[in-house]
Design a protein that fits this description.
Number of helices: 2
Shape: rod-shaped
Largest sheet: none
Distance between the termini: 45 Å
C-alpha cells in the first residue's frame, strides 16, 4: 500500500456537528414525549409523569 492509495480522513465542519446535535436533540425530545405518554397510559400520577422517562432512560 503506497501513500497515494491510503484512505483520507473526512473533513468535519461546524454544520456537520450542528446537524448531529439537532438530530440527537429531536430524537431525545420524541423519546421523552413517548415515554411520558406511556406513563400517563399506565396511570402514573400526573405530577410524576415527567420522572418516568428519566428513570427508564
Amino acid at each position: 500500500m503506497n501513500i497515494t492509495s491510503a484512505p483520507s480522513t473526512a473533513h468535519v465542519t461546524g454544520w456537520d456537528r450542528a446537524v448531529v446535535i439537532a438530530l440527537g436533540g429531536a430524537g431525545c425530545a420524541l423519546s421523552y414525549d413517548a415515554l411520558q405518554q406511556m406513563a400517563v397510559a399506565i396511570h402514573v400520577r400526573g405530577l410524576l409523569t415527567y420522572l418516568f422517562p428519566l428513570v427508564i432512560d
